[in-house]
Task: structure prediction
Amino acid sequence: MTTHDTTTQHTPVAPQTPAGGAPYAPEHSPRLVWAELAPDVYKAMVGLDAAARRGVDPVLLELVKIRASQLNHCAFCLDMHTKDALAAGESVERIVQLAAWEESRHFYTEKEIAAIELTEAVTVITEGFVPDEVYERAARHFGEADLARLIASITVINAWNRFAVTCRMVPGHYRPGGHR
Result:
């Protein structure tokens, strides 16, 4: 099971210099390490994440988590879930194209597209509601129990994103399988 380890504090890393270029900007520090300050909430989130993912295809789940994290501008979760997707055998090409999936639909199955559309509708729910046609398209590809778990997984990654973005969690330190 992959969890969002928020307990590791990171001190800013000295800027690195890419081959033949100027140094990268320095790494920021997190605002706070919420998991240490609210360990009961963190533990509940880990349990919710584990329950939601049960039975959901792991590769599809990573696509959903990446897309929600892109929409929420969550660099910490993008770092984690792109690495997990690659470790699970996902292609770099499909991960890169996910940001523009509507123009590159041919990279994904109809079931994946339905899950991605549902992810977007749930993630940007502040724009109104989940449209009937998006929900119905997802319902054609997922049984009711699977759809319920997919919706739960989308909701959970959105919660993780909000913790990470608000606390300014630092991307770049995650190693696939490190939280299993």
Summary: The radius of gyration is 17 Å. The helical segments are 34-37, 39-53, 58-71, 75-87, 92-97, 110-123, 132-141, 144-167. DSSP finds eight helices and no strands in the chain. Residues 7-12 have pLDDT under 50 and may be disordered.
